[in-house]
Design goal:
Order of helices and strands: HHHHHHHHHHHHHHHHH
Strand content: under 5%
Length: 311
């Protein structure tokens, strides 16, 4: 892999993260104070809170941003810890929408979306139009960044070192560890999934190896919320701890399922020959399954959090 390819990879990742932040910022500006009101009004019922977490996170494409926002609400006393926990469960499902959109190849329209967004942001005077342009432009830039990353990764096909390195990822613990470290560094599970899908598109990685890395991604993404909670109240730290334990629980559970059953083969059979979709489906099934199971034991999970980190 040449220096030009590495720089292209870094540049593509930067565009991806910048586009995501730009889109999230635009949506938050459009919502204004309504987002805070929505989160406060629709989170006093467990199922409404989960649904709200799914929808809002699907719109902003970042469970990390959603969790950091919730930590802020909990720190300031605007939302009880229990309500925020339910929203975090929904956020874990909502973040999978990015992978599904990447699998559908929505990125073919990304240059047009970026162009429309920039025109609206630069040339229109009304704030709402500016914010809408910021959202649309960010969406387009996000997918353009992914395309640049995909092109930059193509030389890895001929790298004997990289191909031999992939053989080690057959071990579940090592795959999970790689996923944790990688996502903790770039602090975006959506970007990590995008890179993994790019590798799968070039047939550089199988679903079996990708599965355990995906489990690691969801643990690694908790670092953002953990860092955000350090300077806050005890409730904020409890929420960050719950987010971490929820994803660790899911990783352990689904690793055992994958080792004891042909679960990975079943997922691959849903969309044969569509590796990008298989990875997106695995990510979605993992997060939906973890959340559904946790919802039936949320009372005990909250009690467990209070024992580890008393108020």
């Amino acid at each position: 892999m040449k220096i030009q390819d590495m720089l292209g990879m870094i540049g593509g990742l930067s565009l991806f993260l910048f586009g995501m932040n730009m889109m999230s910022g635009g949506l938050e500006k459009i919502a204004g104070n309504h987002l805070e009101m929505i989160l406060k009004k629709l989170t006093y019922n467990k199922w409404k809170a989960v649904f709200t977490g799914i929808v809002v996170t699907a719109l902003i494409h970042s469970s990390s941003a959603m969790t950091v926002m919730l930590i802020g609400f909990v720190n300031s006393g605007l939302m009880p810890l229990e309500n925020a926990i339910w929203v975090v469960m929904g956020a874990n499902i909502g973040t999978t929408i990015t992978g599904q959109m990447l699998a559908l190849d929505v990125g073919t329209l990304s240059p047009l979306l970026a162009f429309i967004g920039v025109i609206m942001f630069v040339f229109f005077k009304k704030e709402k139009m500016n914010y809408t342009g910021e959202t649309i432009g960010g969406f387009g830039i996000l997918f353009m960044g992914l395309e640049i990353m995909s092109v930059s990764l193509m030389p890895l096909k001929d790298s004997s070192f990289f191909l031999s390195l992939l053989q080690w990822l057959s071990y579940p613990i090592l795959g999970i560890f790689v996923g944790i470290i990688f996502t903790a560094i770039i602090q975006s599970s959506s970007a990590s999934i995008g890179i993994l899908q790019s590798l799968a598109k070039m047939n550089l990685i199988s679903l079996e190896k990708a599965t355990y890395i995906i489990f690691g991604f969801d643990i690694g993404t908790c670092i953002t919320a953990f860092l955000a909670s350090l300077s806050g109240s005890r409730s904020g730290k409890q929420l960050a701890l719950f987010h971490l334990l929820l994803n660790i629980f899911g990783a352990i559970l689904f690793t055992l399922i994958c080792l004891c059953t042909p679960f990975i083969e079943w997922v691959s059979m849903l969309t044969p020959h569509l590796m990008m979709t298989q990875i997106a489906n695995m990510h979605t099934i993992f997060n939906v399954g973890t959340t559904v199971i946790a919802l039936f034991f949320d009372r005990y999970l909250i009690q467990f959090i209070y024992k580890i980190l008393p108020s």
